[in-house]
Each structure stands twice: as structure tokens, then as C-alpha cells.
Specification:
By secondary structure, the protein is α+β, with helices and mostly antiparallel strands. It contains two helices and six strands.
Length: 108
């Protein structure tokens, strides 16, 4: 879920649940991958692309898992000169969520 204000879109929290089953896996790397798959789906449904993302906030439950975000991040945003801003914060996420993403994108 999210909202649109003018040409800007704002997501609610995007978690690392399996996009097919809705189950949140216990594996942190898999949660990171699923979170970015779900982010891509959110963007597509909003009519946006990764190139239109201006900022991603990454909520991380365990600081030790923070580096697991880098692989799917680089896959989604491969160009180092056109990556969005990224802000990572440690958060007390509910249930077995280890990651949660929030995105701001600008539509043309």
C-alpha cells in the first residue's frame, strides 16, 4: 500500500514476505530478496520504475544483517551514478520481520 501526491508516490512498509504465499521466511537473506521483489511490484503497480526512486529507507531489525541488503540493492540499482538515497536504521520490527523498506519515487 502507499499513496500518491501529485507526481510523487510514497510506500507504506514493504516487508520481506514471500510474494506468492505471504509467509515471512526465517532466513534473513531470503527476506532481503523478497523485500526488493515486493518493492519492484509496488513500483510497477504505481506505474513507476526503479529509475524513478529518489529515496529508500531500510529498517533493519539486527545490525548484523544490514549487509544482506546490498545484493538486492545493487541488482535493483546497478548504476552507481543514478542510485537513490538510502537511509538504514535499526528498528524493532514486529513478528519475525528482519527488514522493512519504505520508498519515495517521482513519476514523470
Amino acid at each position: 500500500m502507499g499513496s500518491r501526491v501529485g507526481n510523487m508516490i510514497f510506500s507504506s512498509g514493504i516487508m520481506g514476505a514471500d510474494p506468492t504465499t505471504g509467509v515471512i521466511p526465517d532466513d534473513a537473506a531470503q527476506q532481503a530478496e523478497f523485500a526488493f521483489q515486493n518493492l519492484r511490484t509496488f513500483l510497477e503497480l504505481a506505474g513507476a520504475t526503479p529509475e524513478q526512486v529518489g529515496k529508500v529507507t531500510v529498517h533493519v531489525k539486527n545490525e548484523a544483517d544490514r549487509d544482506l541488503i546490498n545484493k538486492p540493492w545493487l541488482e535493483m540499482f546497478p548504476d552507481p551514478h543514478h542510485r537513490p538515497a538510502r537511509h538504514a536504521v535499526q528498528a524493532n520490527l514486529r513478528r519475525n520481520m528482519l527488514f522493512q523498506l519504505e520508498v519515495i519515487a517521482v513519476l514523470p
